[in-house]
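Appendix B. Raw example, untouched.
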Amino acid sequence: MRRVATVIATGLLLSSGSALAKDYGDAGTIELGGNVFFESTSTKLEDDDNNFKTDESGTDITLAPDVFYYLMPGLPIIGGIELGMENDKDNEDDSTSATTGFGVGVGTGYFVKVGAARLGPAAQLRFSQETTKTDDGAGVETETTLSGPGVRLGALAKLPIGSGGVITAGLFMNYDTLKEKVKDVDGETDVTSMSFGTTVGVSVWF
């Protein structure tokens, strides 16, 4: 009788553990990690009087820690921050520029299970601010701040690895409507920025 009771108790514990076990992306899954974004940016600037217009392009690299919480299988709430830094120097005239950036975003996505991976779209509303300090090499310094809201749309692939790891890769587009303000100068410039790029990242889930 004691052996039978022991076998039954062991079976209940095993079945309970199996019921509590979950796969990546199931309801209640929490994912913590970060991504590196590689962006190709196109920017248009226009002042309040529509007198000054400039088209610019460039490439940026941004670090972005984030968190995913899955409300239901495949459907997460996404929150994250973005940190960026860039330093440039012109060796001909000794001019320099230093840029620091910060942003926050919140959004959602939907990821379907395809084999071992989860694939799907994601979207975030974001707010970013970027400050650039320049020195023309002759001691004249300028400080410029860009800030405003935007949206990020992307397609992500997430592949669980090992016992609690995830590798992420994807494509994305950012669209931002910003205000440019030069310190100690009156007025602001409207800035529309659109960027396309790729992202890769690693994270842990539980």
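End of appendix B.
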